């Protein structure tokens, strides 16, 4: 695998994890939003990722080189939380309020996983950079 391909693979991972963090931040920012432009509470969003081919078959790795890409950002169809709060303006006639289907612990866990994956891709870029510099030193 050439060095530029290694940078491309890691960069695709950085992009996907940054986008994933953006979606998680949006979920956390709307954890109490009970009314949206579409009507009803905010619905949690999730990033759908997949591997994408980055180049031809690599003989050294004996497989195709793959990076990461975002296929879609989808809404979670799990039910909203129902809370009794008759004084809230968005409560129904029985006094129940529908709250977003965002779970704080799930979002924090996803954030930690995205951060770790981002850090791993950064480490891979730094290691590739060090390998390139060492290869250039050998050529002197």
Structural notes for this entry:
With 140 residues, this protein is an alpha+beta fold. 44% of the residues lie in helices and 25% in strands. The protein is built from 2 helices and 4 strands; from the N terminus they run αββββα. Helix 1 (3-29) runs antiparallel to helix 2. The longest helix is centred in the last third of the chain and has 35 residues, at 104-138. 11% of the residues are buried.
Question: Which tags fit this structure?
Answer:
two-stranded antiparallel sheet, 140 residues, elongated, alpha+beta
Short description:
This protein has 2 helices and 4 strands; from the N terminus they run H-E-E-E-E-H.
Question: Cα-atom Rg, whole angstroms?
Answer: 22 Å
Uncertain stretches: none
Task: Give a quick account of the main beta sheet: strands, pairing sense, barrel closure.
Answer: 2 strands, antiparallel
Our count of helices gives 2
Question: What order do the helices and strands come in, and which of them pair?
Answer:
Layout: H1 3-29, E1 45-58, E2 63-75, E3 81-84, E4 96-99, H2 104-138
Antiparallel strand pairs: 1-2, 3-4
């Amino acid at each position: 695998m050439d060095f530029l391909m290694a940078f491309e693979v890691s960069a695709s991972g950085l992009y996907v994890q940054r986008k994933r963090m953006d979606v998680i931040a949006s979920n956390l920012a709307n954890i109490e939003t009970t009314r949206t432009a579409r009507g009803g509470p905010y619905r949690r969003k999730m990033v759908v990722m997949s591997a994408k081919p980055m180049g031809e078959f690599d003989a050294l790795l004996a497989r195709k080189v793959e990076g990461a890409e975002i296929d879609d950002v989808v809404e979670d169809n799990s039910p909203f939380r129902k809370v009794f709060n008759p004084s809230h303006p968005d409560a129904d006639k029985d006094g129940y309020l529908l709250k977003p289907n965002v779970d704080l612990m799930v979002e924090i866990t996803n954030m930690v996983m995205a951060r770790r994956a981002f850090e791993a891709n950064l480490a891979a870029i730094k290691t590739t950079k060090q390998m390139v510099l060492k290869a250039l030193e050998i050529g002197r």
